[in-house]
Every structure is written in C-alpha cells, then in structure tokens.
Specification:
The protein is α+β, with helices and mostly antiparallel strands and 209 residues long. The chain is built from seven helices and twelve strands. The strands form three sheets. It has a seven-stranded mixed β-sheet. It has a three-stranded antiparallel β-sheet with strand order 3-6-5, covered by helices on one side. Strands 10-12 form a two-stranded parallel sheet. The chain is globular and about 55 Å long.
C-alpha cells in the first residue's frame, strides 16, 4: 500500500471505524483484488474474513476496471507492469477485472484476523501513486479516514521499529508507526500481546510462548 495507517483493533474497534466511514449508507465493502460488474458487496462479517477489502465511497465514484486492452495495462510504467503480472497470476474470469489503483477513488482496508492469543495489525489507506491526481476530494477522504485512526488511537510502535509504550507486549516484524484503538489498547494493557503474523510464525517455530 502506497499510503496507509497501521493499527491494532478489536472487533468493537473495527465496528467503530466502519461506523465512522458510514458503512453501509455512505460506503460499501467489496472483495479485492478482482472486481466484478456489478460489484459484489460484502457485509461487515464477510469483510472481516477477508485479508484485503475494497471500500467504495459512492459520492466519489466506483472503482475503474482494468483489462489487457486498457491503457493502464500498456507500456513500461511500474503500475502497468504490475497490472500485467497480476492479470497473469490471478487469471480473472470473463466478468472480472483488476482495479486501476491510480484512477479509482477507493480505500484499501486490510482487517487483521482476530485471534485469542494476540492482536495483529490492520491497515487502511490508498494504493494510488498520487491521490490528488484522482481528485482532491478523494485525497481529503483518505486523509480524514487515516486521521480518524490516529486521533482515536494511541501510538504503541514507532518508525524505528521499537516500542513507544515499553509497558506493553508489542513485537512487530516491520518498521512503521502503529496505533492501538481503544479496545485494543485496553487488551494490550491487560497483557494481550501485539504481534504481526510473521512474528507469530517465528515464535511458533522457536516454541516461544
């Protein structure tokens, strides 16, 4: 993801975020990376089972599909090369297409799977190389959405890849600022560890509890 905010969340926290975004009245949730016409709509429970979800704000417009004959698939740009590679790897059906990330006013939401033994980080943001090139309204929407997470969250992991709350059991395998939304912060303060999926795999491999 080109622009994103990373955060820990409980189920209740994720519901608060979706309420803020205005799902289902203002935004709808859809599978990613392949899109259909008409779009397949996910309810909240279905969306939380996905590793990546497309968030569509219908005031800003629908995602733009990409197929091999389209300009976004042609030429030597990085996005065009990745579009061609993804098309080959995903092999879309006749009614499916990729999404043009540099033309679609959409948010990519990656809700972490809910585990009883740890809290994993979710993320929310945009895949566009330039959000302003899509539209200023789109750029404002993405920035407002990410700012909501920052305002309502507490930073628990820093860009240096280390704890910013040393009293919490947080150990991540990536370098990025991570916030904890209220429910997740309460769980972390109660002793639930914060882990990335890679960290959990590493602990399982070494037998670390």
């Amino acid at each position: 993801m080109v622009t994103a905010v990373h955060y820990f969340a409980t189920l209740e926290d994720q519901m608060m975020l979706l309420d803020y975004l205005g799902e289902p009245a203002k935004v709808t949730l859809h599978p990613w990376p392949l899109i259909t016409t008409p779009l397949t709509v996910l309810n909240r429970e279905e969306a939380l089972e996905q590793s990546r979800v497309l968030v569509v704000n219908h005031q800003l417009g629908l995602p733009i599909p990409v197929r091999p004959s389209d300009a976004a698939m042609q030429g030597g740009s990085v996005s065009a090369v990745f579009n061609r590679l993804n098309w080959e790897a995903l092999a879309p059906a006749e009614d499916e297409a990729l999404m043009d990330a540099n033309a679609s006013p959409t948010i990519l939401w990656s809700p972490a799977r809910l585990h009883t033994e740890a809290i994993l980080p979710s993320s929310l943001g945009s895949q566009a190389d330039s959000m302003a090139q899509i539209s200023k309204d789109y750029e404002r929407w993405v920035n407002r959405s990410m700012s909501w997470v920052r305002r309502n969250g507490t930073q628990v992991w820093g860009l240096e890849g280390r704890q910013t709350r040393p009293d919490l059991d947080v150990d991540l395998s990536f370098i990025s600022t991570v916030f904890a939304l209220p429910g997740a912060l309460k769980a972390l303060e109660s002793g639930t560890p914060g882990r990335s999926s890679e960290s959990m795999k590493g602990e399982a491999a070494t037998g670390k509890e």
